[in-house]
Amino acid sequence: MQAAKEKKTKTPPPIPFLPCGIIDSHAHVIREFFGEDRDDYISEAHSMGIKQFVNPGVTTQGLEELIEIIDRYPYVYGAAGQHPHDAKDFDDRAMADLQKAMTHPKMVAVGECGLDYHYDNSPREVQIAVFRAQLRLAASLDKPVIIHCRDAWDDAFALLREMVETVGGVKGVFHCFTGGPEHLETIAELNFYVSFSGILTYANAKSIQAAAPLVPADRFLVETDCPFLAPQKVRGEKNKPPYVWFTAQKLAELRNVTLESVAIAATQNAQRLFNLPRV
Fold first, then answer.
1. Confidence tier at 9 by pLDDT (50, 70, 90)
2. Is 144 contained in some domain?
């Protein structure tokens, strides 16, 4: 009987990191997703050219761990918010917890928050009310807001225009952009940034890819949204901050520029938006 062939292990592609470094503008590196290896992933990120990264909260329950992380690592920054999936659980106590967390000097944004009409895990009217409350908090603190928007562009834009009319507007970013060229004019009018995730690298992401070359060079960011949405070259693996280089590589290809120019621009844009120190 012929011996069974040994199963071949897939060799991961090399990560194309450059000496200039880059910023992962949105990563969820917490124990819920990375377990007891969390700190190893954080250290690895820095060694692979991730100069800084923003670690946003999705509920107020996780704020204690986020503050522990940003206190420990000088290159990790936090954001505090309630995700639209969990808007139904937001109350006065949650708002008080957000306000307290935002007094930390390394909490650089409110979010992630926003609207998700794809899953509708919270009633839409509740999502709108909770999003509005967090937009007002961001405006009162003069902090940017990290927006999750899925299948809810009209209502998201309406709320941001409402902020312009009532408090003079709010700054921020549409993270993990899933829109298309048709959304960019309004985003530009609102003076918001656009952040591209690993979705940009997927073959069926034609609308996102069409938008990528059209975003002004001073208005794009890159992110992993890890542990989710690993780029195509490592799809199926747990996403991690160094994989943001694959997304930046695809963005450079779509914009017909060098990877270094995308890395430098994305870094400068993230530092400007989140008021991060230049390193």
1. low
2. yes
Q: What is the pLDDT of residue 11?
A: 82
When pLDDT is averaged across residues 34-61 and rounded to a whole number, the result is 97
CB 179 within 8 Å of CB 220: no
Instruction: Output DSSP code: residue 147.
Output: E
Q: What is the average per-residue pLDDT within 80-98?
A: 98
Specify the DSSP element, H or E, that contains 124. helix 124-141
Residue 1 reports pLDDT greater than 50: no
The answer to whether residue 106 is domain-embedded is yes
- CATH number reported for the structural domain that contains residue 146 in this entry: 3.20.20.140
Integer Cα distance of 262 and 223 in angstroms: 12
Whether the predicted pLDDT of 6 surpasses 70: no
DSSP for 82-139, written as a single string = --GGGGGG--HHHHHHHHHHTTSTTEEEEEEEEEETTT--S-HHHHHHHHHHHHHHHH
* Domain membership of residue 40 as a residue range: 22-274
Distance separating alpha carbons of residues 104 and 94, to the nearest angstrom: 16
Cis ω on the peptide bond leading into residue 112 (within 30° of 0)? yes
Closest CA relative to residue 52, chosen from 235, 222, 176, 249: 222
